[in-house]
Amino acid sequence: MSDWETVIGLEVHVQLKTASKIFSGAATDYGSEPNTQACAVDIALPGVLPVMNQEAARMAVVFGLAIGAKINQRSIFARKNYFYPDLPKGYQISQYELPIVAQGQLEINVDGQLRSIGITRAHLEEDAGKSVHEGFQGATGIDLNRAGTPLLEIVSEPDLRTSAEAVAYLKKLHSLVRYLGICDGNMQEGSFRCDANISVKPRSSSTLGTRAEIKNINSFRFVERAITFEIERQIDLLEEGGSVIQETRLYDADRDETRSMRGKEEAHDYRYFPDPDLPPLLLSDQFLDQVAASLPELPEARCARFVSEYKLDPGEATKLVDDRAVADFFEATVKDSPKEAKRVANWINGEIAARLNRQNLTISDSPVTPDLLSKLIQRIADGTLSGNTAKEVFSALWEGERDVDQVIDDKGLKQITDSGAIESIVDEVLNGFVDQVEQYKSGNTKVFGFLVGQVMKRSQGKANPKQVNELLRNKLG
Ligand code: ADP
Ligand code: MG
Questions:
Q1: Does the CA dihedral 383-389-394-400 come out positive or negative?
Q2: Going from the N-terminus, what domains does the chain have, and what CATH number goes with each?
């Protein structure tokens, strides 16, 4: 039996977040009434001409620069010819021989192992329309709203070796394109979709095996499962003495299996040729400089800065930076109290993340704004609030309260730090629990926690726990 090695290359279609389509002025909004956003160009009326949307080119360049790629200052649009009902022109405008972006890298981290994955190319193309089956009997509807929506197809080298690496790569890419503001990342709506190419080979062999391509997988979980299934299918086949055929397969999530869709014989011959309606896409030095100057601080650099500047753990920093709006929220909160950065990170990654998640909200919806969070944390830092009372104040803010100190007053949550006041409660407890005090003095140190608990209880949770501990310890000798 051979020792098999898996080889995976991914093709990801990223829908660019432009307001209008790549070759027409029609809107790109998702979910509009069918065929209300398809203009003469999108439905391919005779005599129309495509005009390139510069914003789509800018977004492609932003991506290229972010992955350290080569930007081709001259790239070419080509016609990819095939016949399908949702493709009115009978061809898709794409890029073939000269894509706008080539040769980049994306670094992934799987269980602490860093690997650099090659990105062969990223090219611009238009999306097709959609066939609609629901609500039609004996007929198929065609909705051309999506026709002409700009896509960036990002093609990886066959560098990935496991389904876990493939998912890590996809998640990294997904996070990056959202961070850069070039894609909304909505996978249910098809804004980010993936084709997976998979082959296996004996580990010792230097030539790649024959691959199967699994089309249009639209969730991270399905990518993982589809690849895992496909690897096993191919290994079983090879071990039985069979061979893998090059084909396109579909992943069926209900049955958790992949099925053949079309073989090599039925593969399309796309007859690519340069589109005579579109001139070469030329990018000036000045344009590239402008885009480069507009790039935000990239996630990796920002993460490293959070670790060095604010002394966060790499894990915490990575979580914050995964979403640019969350990272911005963190910095806005920390601005006035940089020494409290760790506390801020804890609140954002903990309480806030949990609540947003539960209510299916994003950070921009958080009723607790950076200003409020910062104020709350100052009140923890200056000893007014304890961990528990801070949670209570936080809840009130989440429910709509807007003044931290007012909430503390109204609820009587101010922590007792007056040592005289604490001392009198400690004395009450020591006098009231004589037996326990005896037990403690005869060596049963576990009773200490009980006594602390009694003091806290009598202070309604407001005594400063550190002071309570110190006072009790002193008094018990
Ligand atoms: P096509 O022209 O059919 O799209 P490409 O050469 O563009 O093929 O490759 C498409 C994807 O398939 C790329 O991501 C590439 O890394 C991957 N790929 C190519 N050969 C293999 C292989 N033998 N096993 C796994 N993936 C592969
Ligand atoms: Mg391809």
A1: negative
A2: 4-287 (no CATH), 296-410 (no CATH), 419-476 (1.10.10.410)
